[in-house]
Design brief:
The protein has 262 residues and is of the alpha+beta class. Helix content is 23%, strand content 28%. The chain binds one DNA strand of 15 nucleotides through loops.
Length: 262
DNA sequence: ATGGTGGTTCAACCA
């Protein structure tokens, strides 16, 4: 089962790129973030025509997450538990049933958190604390689980071409990185870091200042695997070439292949 | 050090 996470930065602007990627990569499941669409306005036909079921959790103008799958999508849950007052659409979770078994998959869009010293950064840290509590509960289910998305966290120095450029940024703060390590310490595995341990593996290049041409990237899109999913991990990586397409997202599709048997 | 680009929505916000 090939599972992709991709921050598409607006589904309306990314119609052609998404269609081309589905044809080319043919993932079994694709988790998307920043769809920037309400559910009623979402172009479901883009996915249905390619053979996918699609479930969305949208919002007007900002944020918004979705899961599309070639297999049946069941038990859909919208919103990250732990704060009923949070109105931002950043989390959707569902069970994907496949002949070899079922996988619980989340598509998450973690708050950016900039600038430091504002309520945006405290919201980011509070959201990460909620995610940790929920991620711990998911482990109790003991089923293969994949938490995929734009984490807006650069985990380590090797995950940035120019680490010094990010020292004052919410994506690289010690608190942000510690909260990410907290997820790993629960027992989750960073699929891409495990399969591609070397430097230079990035998932995001800013639109500004020629970042893509200079390969001035960072790795902030991650797939975290529960032990039951990590046992089945075969390969993982980044389809970085899509960043060079016309009208690209500033993020590249990031994926993991899980062996699910017959 | 600053400004650099892009998406959505409608002058501003977010990244």
């Amino acid at each position: 089962m090939k599972i992709v996470t991709w921050n598409i930065n607006g589904v309306k602007a990314r119609h052609e790129a998404v269609a081309a990627y589905l044809r080319e990569a043919s993932p079994d499941v694709i988790c998307m973030q920043e769809i920037k669409s309400v559910d009623e306005g979402f172009p479901t036909g883009l996915f249905e025509d390619a053979g996918y079921q699609i479930e969305t959790h949208g919002q007007k103008g900002f944020n918004g997450v979705a899961i599309a799958s070639k297999f049946a999508i069941e038990d859909v849950s919208r919103g990250l538990p732990g704060n009923d007052d949070d109105e931002q659409s950043r989390y959707i979770e569902a069970t994907i049933s496949q002949p070899g078994g079922a996988v619980r998959i989340a598509s998450l869009y973690l708050p950016n958190g900039n600038p430091l010293g504002t309520e945006k950064f405290s919201y980011k840290l509070a959201w990460m604390a909620r995610l940790r509590r929920h991620a711990a509960r998911l482990l109790d289910e003991e089923m293969p689980t994949v938490l995929a998305g734009d984490y807006n966290v650069i985990p380590e120095l090797t995950d940035a071409k120019r680490p010094s450029a990010w020292t004052g940024d919410a994506l690289f703060q010690p608190e942000s990185r510690a909260a990410y390590r907290g997820l790993l310490n629960l027992g989750y595995t960073d699929a891409v870091r495990t399969c591609e341990p070397g430097p230079g593996v990035y998932t995001f290049w800013d639109y500004q200042a020629g970042a893509w041409n200079k390969d001035d990237g960072i790795r902030i899109d991650h797939l975290l695997l529960s032990p039951q999913a990590a046992d089945r991990l075969r390969s993982a990586g980044v389809d970085r070439h899509t960043r060079g397409w016309d009208k690209p997202s500033d993020h590249a599709p990031t994926w993991a292949e899980i062996e699910m048997g017959a």
